[in-house]
Amino acid sequence: MSHKRSGILLLVSGPSGSGKSTLCRRLTEEGEAVYSTSCTTRQPREGEQDGVDYFFQTRESFKKLVEEDKFIEYAEVHGNNYGTLISEVVEHLEKGTDVVLDIDVQGASLVRECQSEIIQQALVDVFVMPPSEEELYKRLSGRGTDAQEIIDLRMKNSVEEMQYWNKYTSLIYSGTHEEDYAKFKSLLIAERLKVSRLIQA
């Protein structure tokens, strides 16, 4: 008797500077999962590619996608719109491919409310918590790419976002990158072993 496994939707949240995006990126670079490419209305940063880092949208095209119910979730963050396409996620899950979603707490709430059966069966949510507000500020200001007002805005939003950690099934307190990644990958491996994820061939 052989079985195949349905895909896991690993939903990852945490404030800017928590290291969540680095964890997601490493997981995909190692071939453990695919990164769900989101839509956004923000301008591309240097080196970012349309269709790879994001699907860059105008506000008008983004609004049209919302009206057509193309998103699992969408939200406004730092004055820009972000959204996750249903088609992007479901296509991978049906093939048994694990998908990583790097989204904020607003988006996570909408994903939990999604009526799609395959999304609900696949969903595993985890919050990455920075070790302290002091460390968080150091990480945000240490990037050297943002103006002070942007850093202050991200810090304010990050502190607010940290209040939602208890809405998640799993919590990772950030330490070193290697420690964080070991926990992150272990969570995914444990989910893969669940009998409930097996489909009899």
TrEMBL record:
Keywords from the UniProt entry: ATP-binding, Cytoplasm, Kinase, Nucleotide-binding, Transferase
Domain Guanylate kinase-like: 7-189
EC number: 2.7.4.8
Keyword Secreted among UniProt keywords: no
Location in or out of the cell: Cytoplasm
Superkingdom of source: Bacteria
Alphabetical list of SUPFAM superfamilies matching this protein: P-loop containing nucleoside triphosphate hydrolases (SSF52540)
Catalysed reaction equations from the record: GMP + ATP = GDP + ADP
CDD domains given in the database record: GMPK (cd00071)
GO molecular function: ATP binding; GMP kinase activity
Cited Gene3D superfamilies: Guanylate Kinase phosphate binding domain, P-loop containing nucleotide triphosphate hydrolases
Stored HAMAP family: Guanylate_kinase
Protein name as catalogued: Guanylate kinase
Organism expressing this protein natively: Persicirhabdus sediminis
